From TrEMBL:
Entry keyword set: Acyltransferase, Membrane, Transferase, Transmembrane, Transmembrane helix
Principal subcellular localization: membrane
Organism expressing this protein natively: Dioscorea cayennensis subsp. rotundata
Gene3D superfamilies referenced in this protein's UniProt entry, alphabetically: alpha/beta hydrolase
Protein name: phospholipid:diacylglycerol acyltransferase
Length: 552
């Protein structure tokens, strides 16, 4: 008998346990970022942040800033123009704006191959984008000819025209925009407002020689007066524009060809008032520091803290020598050198500021003016040794003591020594007249110790003879003995109020508006800079900081 067998169960497959594998401990830790990874992450983070900010900038309403301000501090008050309109004030006299140095826009009309694509684009003002994109090209185009003070061959930079020429200096930095907007509230418009823009790099007379700017200002004022019922113009110059318009008022009265041929009564017939804002009528000490070492107080602090960035060949920039080379071609800067010499600005042991304690912004009491006690020293008075008449002093130990205790060696006949520029071809791109002075000439400048305003003119002739030769043909810095002397009919005297007469306009009003109680650079303590390649040999010594030394 056959019996059916049960099928046998197949044994289950047994998966063998994996053999234990030893893993190095280092593989279990996250890998460290390399320097390249960190750099890429940082660049990506910057790009992402930039795009987010750019998106928010375009997405946010234009009034967002005002809305936030109003939410914090309440509703914004009406601007002055709106308040005047409510009071019934309306436009009457045409208004002329005269901008100062550096505030007017400049645009390119002809340039070198490196400036391709920049025709009629702003090289000065606006975003200053070309400074970052092509700095060497920008410097080349913004410089003037070192011999003539006019355009270099193949380059034409011209002033922007219209109210937009100087309404904003850069994005968010207004110059005339607020005043223009307030005047618009009471009825002014472009036909009753005129921006007298000019190439502020040029000497005043050269703006007429090259661009006929003075003639254009004359014609525009005459047109505005004629089309506004004969109402005379109100002129508002600012900063160096005050000197420029002073020059214009003498030019327009003078006969051709040197002048505009308007006649001695032109100002009386066309100008109601001149409202000068912050005009450097007698010059400013800051102009000396700018021409001597390309510095002012803020630049001096940066130069001391980061000397490699501004002085030496840091990434090939040589920033400060480039700035000096550029600015020394701008003849207009010499219009603001202090005028009147020691009579106005003081001598080695006195100055008009004697008795003024600028630490408290008040006049120190019980300090005899120009007294020997004040000069020699009164220990309990903060400014007992502040000799502001010494516009330049080499060392704190020279800035304080009486002049009788200072041994000075005259620099005027000093031998300048060997020219180290010819032995160093790398300095060609940042050439300044300092490169024609040997170490002997540099030391001679320092050995003179203290410089008054009169000395400074000789100093600038010594260290920058080509620049001062151009400046001497266009500007004067003295005090007239006799204003009837025929020599004062020359245009170089027209921007110096100490050497020229006011216009023949007895009914014309002149206003002078200045800030009060604001610390202002008055004199400087210098030192010799550390020798370096293509360097500027002198720099402001910020260790002498404090109002007793150079700010008041």
């Amino acid at each position: 008998m056959l019996r059916r067998r049960k099928p046998e169960k197949k044994p289950e497959a047994v998966t063998p346990a994996p053999a234990s594998v030893s893993v190095p401990a280092a593989a279990t830790r996250p890998a460290r970022w390399s320097c390249v990874d960190t750099c890429c992450w940082f660049v990506g983070w910057i790009c992402f942040s930039w795009w987010v900010l750019l998106f928010l900038y375009h997405a946010a309403p234009a009034s967002l800033t005002q809305q936030v301000t109003e939410a914090i501090s309440g509703p914004m008050p009406d601007p002055p123009g709106a308040l005047l309109r409510k009071e019934g004030v309306t436009a009457r006299h045409p208004v002329v704006f005269v901008p100062g140095i550096v505030t007017g826009g400049l645009e390119l009309w002809e340039g070198r191959p490196c400036a391709e694509g920049l025709f009629r684009k702003r090289l000065w003002g606006g975003t200053f984008g070309e400074v970052y994109k092509r700095p060497s090209c920008w410097l080349e185009h913004m410089s003037l000819d070192n011999e003539t003070g006019l355009d270099p061959p193949g380059i034409r930079i011209r002033a922007v025209s219209g109210l937009v020429a100087a309404d904003y200096f850069a994005a968010g930095y207004f110059v005339w925009a607020v005043l223009i907007a307030n005047l618009a509230h009471i009825g002014y418009e472009e036909k009753t407002m005129y921006m007298a823009s000019y190439d502020w790099r040029l000497s005043f007379q050269n703006t007429e020689v090259r661009d006929q700017t003075l003639s254009r200002i004359k014609s525009n004022i005459e047109l505005m007066v004629a089309t506004n019922g004969g109402k005379k113009a109100v002129v508002i110059p600012h900063s160096m524009g005050v000197l420029y318009f002073l020059h214009f008022m003498k030019w327009v009265e003078a006969p051709a060809p040197m002048g505009g041929g308007g006649g001695s009564d032109w100002c009386a017939r066309h100008i109601k008032a001149v409202m000068n804002i912050g005009g450097p009528l007698l010059g400013v000490p800051k102009a000396i520091a700018g021409l001597f070492s390309a510095e002012a107080k803020d630049v001096a602090v940066a130069r001391e803290k980061a000397p490699g960035v501004l002085d030496s060949d840091f990434f090939g920039l040589q920033t400060l020598p480039h700035i000096m080379r550029l600015s020394r071609t701008w003849d207009s800067t010499m219009s603001m050198i202090p005028k009147g010499g020691d009579t106005i600005w003081g001598g080695l042991d006195w100055s008009p500021e004697e008795g003024y304690d600028c630490s408290d912004n008040k006049k120190s009491e019980n300090v005899p003016h120009a007294s020997e006690e004040f000069r020699v020293g009164v220990d309990d008075i903060h400014i007992s040794n502040a000799n502001y008449g010494r516009i330049i002093s080499f060392g704190k130990d020279v800035a304080e003591p009486p002049s009788s205790n200072i041994k000075r060696i005259d620099f005027r006949d000093a031998v300048k020594g060997n020219n180290f520029a010819h032995s160093n071809n790398s300095c060609h791109d940042v050439w300044t007249e300092y490169h024609e002075m040997g170490r002997e000439g540099i030391q001679a400048v320092a050995d003179y110790k203290s410089y008054t305003t009169s000395d400074v003119l000789d100093l600038l002739h010594f260290v920058a003879p080509k620049m001062m030769k151009r400046g001497g043909a266009h500007f004067s810095y003295g005090i007239a003995d006799d204003l009837d002397d025929p020599k004062y009919k020359h245009y170089k005297y027209w921007s110096n109020p100490l050497e020229t007469k006011l216009p023949n306009a007895p009914d014309m009003e002149i206003y002078a508006l200045y800030g009060v109680g604001i610390p202002t650079e008055r004199a400087y303590v210098y030192k010799l800079a550390q020798p370096a390649e293509c360097y500027i040999p002198f720099q402001i010594d910020i260790t002498a900081d404090g109002c007793r030394f150079y700010v008041c």
